[in-house]
Structure formats: C-alpha cells, structure tokens
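=== RUN LOG ===
request id: a7f3
mode: sequence -> structure
chains: 1
length: 282
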Amino acid sequence: MRRWWAAVALVAALAGCAGPAEQDDGRVRVVAAFYPLQFVAEQVGGDRVRVENLTRAGAEPHDLELRPSQLAGLEDADLVVYLRGFQPAVDEAIDLQDKGKTFDVAGVQPLRDADPHVWLDPVRLAAIADRTAERLAAADPAAADAIRERARALHAQLQELDGEFRDGLADCRRRDVVTSHEAFGYLTARYGLTQVAVTGLNPDEEPGPQQVRDVAKVARDRGVTTIFFESLVSPKLSETVAREIGAKSAVLDPLEGVEDGETYFTVMRANLAALRDALGCR
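=== RESULT ===
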C-alpha cells in the first residue's frame, strides 16, 4: 500500500510540483498541516526552511482532503509537523510515512478532553515551538544554533503575548465566553474564563433547538452581551442566540488559517480586544 501511494504521489509531483532547483535548494523541507504549525516552523526555521502548508488560506482545516501533489510533498519532506486527531486525512497519510520525519505536536503536552486547539494558548504554543526547533536543528545541524536562537526569540514573544492576555483579562465585569463552537477551551482555561459553547469540538455538528435554548438561557442569566462566531464558520447560529437574548455577535478567531497580511500575533491581539470588549474589561 505504501509503495502504491508513493507511486501515485510521485507521478503527481513530476506532473506539476516544484522543479529540481527548488527541491534541492539546501533548505529543510517542512510540511505543516495547517497555519499555526506553518507559522511556528517559519519563525523558528527562518531562511533555513521551506514550508508547505497543506491547508490553503480561507479553508476549514478539519475538512481537508489531500491532493496527489500534497501526498508527494509528504514523501519528499524532511519534517512533517501535524496534530493527530485534528485532520483525519492528514492522519491517514502520516501513517504511511517514515515515523522518523513526522512530528505530532499533540504529544508535546497532554491534550485536555481530546481538544486539539492547543495553539490558542500562547504558553502551549511556546512549548511546541521549542520542540519544533529541536527537530529542525536535528535536520540541519549546521544551522542548529541559529534555529535555537530564533526559537528563544519566538518563545519570548509568546510569553509577552501571554502577559498581555493576563493583564488585559484580569479585571472584567463578566467571565463567560459564549461561542458557536467549542474551540477556545485552552484560551479560556489559561486566563480564568469560562467557555459556554453551542456546539462541541466538531464544527460541523448541528445543535438541536433545545440545545440552542439552553445556551441562550445560560447567556441571559449570566448577563452575556456578546455571542462569538468563528471566521471560517457561518455566523447564523451565533446570531440566532444573540437575537434570542438581545445581545450582539462578534468574531473570535480560532486561528486555523489567516488572511493575507495577518499573522498569529495580529489575530491573537484582535481576539484579546474582542474579549475585552465583550467582557467589559477595565
């Protein structure tokens, strides 16, 4: 099976992938499953890495289906960074790869309740960045010192972001964050907030009318003024709950992808501003 899949991928690579000059440019070839992992690899690796993101901008990563050319990229990669349990198609393809070149970031720290959204906690992402640096340093020993230095710089930036969230959310009139999808458990737990989600970890889950009414009652009883929806998901569910209790709806971005010009830090700081406004923080 592995040989057959590799053969299909190789045919696709020869048909339309990057040419030999790009493939042999001396950089470490990294495949990242979705944006936050791409961000970490690029920040830590700098000009010593060439990173391919399997999930295109604006696409929902849970629903990813791999093209033959992407399977070829997995075969050719020096390092594949992914999060097991988040993208079934990626997990299936990873099972056919050399385990020595794959890095499952879910193993850096234990997951909470099988929730994969670890990157929304800057402290956890810093730990992932540190481990990514070690894998890249092993793949490129000549640049190991520079890679580790960049990892230290990223770690410091993430610690600074953590401090901004701690300070910004320390004194708020409300502590409940109502979301359409249960994606923000790590973020809310880190900063002493309570997530109230209309649906569970699966963004495609359709809640029943009673479930929506229950969440609306909790939101009304706790004085919630904002119902959050995600950037890659329809706002209809959040708008329904918001109308039910006379609240407004707003975006809280799970950072599964970014638009042009945005980065992990710009989106996370926009999330902080949205939370401060919704929670009435001083």
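=== NOTES ===
The radius of gyration is 20 Å.
The mean pLDDT is 90.
=== END ===
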